[in-house]
Amino acid sequence: MGQKVHPIGFRLGVTAGWKSRWFDEKNFQQKLREDVEIRGFVEKKWKAAAIADVHIERSANTIRVIISTSRPGVLIGRGGTGIEDLTRVMKARFFPGKKMDLKVDVQEIKSPDENAMLVGQQVAEQIERRMPFRRILKGTIEKVMTSRSVEGAKIEISGRLGGAEMSRREWVSRGKIPLHTLRADIDFAQTVARTTYGTIGVKVWIFKGEKFEEREPKTEEK
Question: CA-CA distance, 99 to 91, in Å (whole number)?
Answer without folding.
Answer: 10
